[in-house]
Amino acid sequence: MIALVEKFCGTLLGTHTGDALGMPLEGASPGSIQKNYGQVREMLDARLGVGTYTDDTEMMIALAESLVRCRGVNGADLAQAYLENFNPLRGYGAGTRKALELLRSGVSWEEAGKRVFEQGSYGNGASMRIAPVGCLYSRDLEKLKEAVHLSSVITHAHPWGEEGALLQAYAVALAVQADPWQEIDVDHFLASLESVLDEGSPFREKLQAMQRLLPGEPGIEEVVLELGNDSRTVTSVPAAIFSFLKNAADFEETVVYAVGLGGDTDTIAAMAGAIAGGFHGKPAIPERWLTRLERGAKGADYIERLARELYDLYTDFYPHA
Question: What does the pLDDT look like over 125-183, one tens digit per residue?
Fold first, then answer.
């Protein structure tokens, strides 16, 4: 058996790994990736160096720090954590940048996200960082839903932005609680995800598309046509979940596949890496990738320490887990 603490480490380090593998190819088409690289199996040089992370991992770090510090989601503290960790060189999306600017100007954490665009942002910013919530509340769906709402609304107040974060968090939770030595029951996994969606949710169509695609061997172009690969949460979250379910037996194959979908490669691979890391645990992440990950004050070693602190908090919440 894989110790649960290793699954927590796998989730957070899986986010960093997928983020780092995908970052150099952000915005590339699947065709250009295939033509120039075939399958991307090695860390490439990126704008901040080999193995570095983007806003995806930076915001995940902020969320994990705040969860540990406050023993749960505290909106005011979390907003401050996002601000304190903010590094514009990491490549933040327009909606998140605007929300952070509003927070810095004194707008409350409850209101900032609502002022981003007309109805709030439905980009994938809330989804890409949500993995720590999926770990901590993997045994309690109601608390998970509440934590997703509080952590999302600060920057992504649109219902789709939050629902995408919920879908990603629950996928992580299901993976963390699953036995990696047993084959994933795809139908049950998808049905569980569908159970948390609102009626009329655009994510329902994506889950149904996965149901059609998974039994066969669809080409990358067909998958992208059906699911999408851009930075909207309604496309990137399904793409990440599909990448995992299509390659659930192997962490490396999951992340390589996610990068191969093109588009928002860093975020799709970060989210796929979080799910696969939660399922398999840290030992499944290739050592050649782990050794290339960013170090420094808030690098891979710090991320693993946060994961272990998050696990300690989990054991306080669920002492008989």
Answer: 999 999 999 999 999 999 999 999 999 999 999 999 999 999 999 999 999 999 999 99
Q: Please, what are the domains in the chain?
A: 4-317 (1.10.4080.10)
Q: Helices 233-246 and 251-260: crossing angle, nearest 10°?
A: 140
Half-sphere exposure of 214 (CA within 13 A, CB side): 22
Helix, strand, coil in percent for the chain, rounding step 5: 65, 0, 35
Listed in sequence order, the residues at least 6 apart from 66 whose beta carbon sits closer than 8 Å to its beta carbon are 73, 74, 77, 78, 81
Q: Length of the chain in residues, anyone? A: 321
Using a cut of 0.70, tell me whether the model's pTM lies above it: yes
Amino acid at 250: D
Nearest one of 110, 83, 117, 90 to 232, comparing CA atoms: 117
Whether 99 and 113 have beta carbons less than 8 Å apart is answered as yes
Residue 232 carries which DSSP code? B
Q: Which two tokens stand for residue 5?
A: 């603490």
Q: Count CB neighbours of 253 within 10 A.
A: 17
DSSP 3-state assignment of 123? Answer: strand
pLDDT for the residue 160: 95
Phi-psi region of 286 (alpha: psi -120 to 50; beta: other; left: phi over 0): beta
Q: Which amino acid is located at 37 in the chain?
A: Y
> First vs last Cα of the chain: how many Å apart?
14
Q: Poorest-confidence range of 6-15, 90-99, 112-121, 133-142? A: 112-121
